[in-house]
Input
Amino acid sequence: MHEMQVVEIKKIIKETKRIKTFILDLDVSAIPGQFVMVWLPGVDEKPMSVSYTKGDLGITVLRLGDFTRRLFELSPGDVLGIRGPMGRGFKVYGDKLLLVGGGVGVAPLAPLAEEALRDGKEVTAIIGAITKSELLFVDRIERAGGRVLISTDDGSAGKKGFTTDVLRELLEEETFDQCFTCGPEIMMAKVLDITREKNIPTQASLHRYFKCGIGICGQCVLDGIGLRVCKEGPTFRDKELRKSPEFGRYWRNAAGQKIYFGGKK
Amino acid sequence: MLEVELCGIKLRNPTMLASGILGTSGAALKRVALSGGAGAIVTKSIGLTPREGHRNPTVVEINGGLISAIGLANPGYEEFGDEIRVAKEGGVPVIGSVYGFNFAEYAAVAETLQKYGVDAIELNISYPNVGKAGAFFGYSEELSHEVVKEVKKRVSLPVFAKLTAGAGDIVAIAKACEEAGADAITAIGALRAMKIDLITGKPVLGNEVGGLSGPCIKPIALRCVYEIAREVDIPVIGCGGITTGEDAVEFFLAGAKAVQIGTAVLYRGITVFKKVSQEIKEYLEENGYCSVDEIVGLALR
Output
């Protein structure tokens, strides 16, 4: 049973101008890629992927709408309701791993990198952001012993362009046992196209509007494959996602209507 | 052995997906039919216009069940044709659940779902968490009668009325629906309940109040089915906390022709329909019965 626990915020770390990490007084172990439902009493409840998976649990959040704006107003000692960790995390089986993260999508990839490096795996991470000051967890992954390649939309750090540009160049010279990606869905869809050409099995972490978070309301079911993002996901295998006409194209709003990425049909 | 016939609709087994669970998209409904093993699937309740429903938290787990207040979220009837088409690929009867804020809405949506090819209509006059929709009608004999009558005028398909135990006299409501032409009664929907968090001192659900479902409401649902089946001649479909084959058998003995399963998806997964069907079969075999029909209403005799 996923009973809601109301816990204190222990520490808040300002990662970038728009991204904060909240370390919670909640000592539970999560698998990188799993999520928690975060309740802001009187406001709303949203899914957030876990960015610190061992010891005190942490979430890393981009300020985007009303919910995250209210979350950003909180201080250590304030409380949040937490359900989880829930869902299917990333599954590592190879030795040479490639991570591709865009924006706040690096959040679940950072603990994955740390755990893999601790287990003696080789980790390369491609991290992208709109600009240098919005890059997330570059130091954290480097400190853990990973290699980091950077892209920024404006060229203020690393390669000017997108993570997929760096990915394409990298895969001309090297190959990997597995790839893990999280970020904007259009980016992830491109990552899957590129790694498919190179036969690199890839897992992607999806974001959808969640209601129940426990697999019964049907809000987050992916078309074509009928899999629930909150239960069989949020991480999926490339071969699963390729069977869904929804992946990379649209999501469903709270009413269940299709909303196309980039506004086009 | 498990086949049943409900208002002329043949079901391969008597387990149906209850409305409101996994029913927002065709892909989900199809999966419940194909891998879940349900004998029929009921869609999420569909209305005239798209609704986002209540804000989160919309579901909270408690001992013995769930309290939920999704708030009749649905994409609206115009967009739902595609979902019905995909749902029908599951190969089992699809029942379109309908809610409305007035009689005309119920009738218009039911008529459209019939056009989309559903096998029956289930009128949601049981949902307790949106002001003047759903249970607003199901609390009153007159309003229940009117909804059924107006819908029956517009559709030729079998029409089920899903009732709430929140009504003062559920048997009277069932009779009113029968008199208005309902072809079956589904009993019961979730019951109004709430949960308050001790640390924040606040109601947990975004809507503050929600509908209680799961094993904790089973005895109430069973009592309702028993009392209704004793008084009406149309089939009764049992719904409320059914989690195992033994639960389902209790409902058959109380007079239900079929059962709906919802919250148990949380406890036993999407294949709960297969599991419950197998358990019903084992009960029938062990007790020397050849069909579900043989035990329907035994407790009433």
Remarks:
- The mean pLDDT of chain B is 96.
- Chain B touches chain A through 43 residues (CB under 8 Å).
